[in-house]
Specification:
The protein has a single domain, classed as Up-down Bundle (de novo design (two linked rop proteins)). It is mainly α and about 80 residues long. The chain is elongated. About 80% of the residues lie in helices and about 0% in strands. It contains three helices and no strands.
Length: about 80
């Protein structure tokens, strides 16, 4: 729950970044928190005896958020992915 809410809070912070490097750095934090949420959801899925549709949906969404943040950072860097 904490890592999931942290994704939203850190994304909001990224939207208020003061510079492009600050924005990219904050998106990296969002990416990390979304990935952590993925981990917790995957661990929870391992503990359940049967598939839970909501858990599957949330895990997919967390993975999509990670992919979006990776793509957004690449775009913010100028599309070539250089870490400037």
């Amino acid at each position: 729950m904490r890592s999931a809410t942290s994704v939203a809070a850190n994304y909001r912070s990224a939207c208020r970044a003061r510079s492009k490097p600050d924005f990219i750095n904050k998106l990296s934090t969002v990416e990390g928190e979304a990935d952590e949420s993925c981990l917790w959801l995957e661990m929870l899925a391992e503990l359940t005896k049967k598939e839970n549709a909501e858990l599957v949906r949330l895990t997919k969404e967390a993975g999509e958020l990670v992919a979006i943040m990776v793509s957004s950072k690449k775009t913010a860097r100028g599309g070539d992915g250089n870490k400037t």
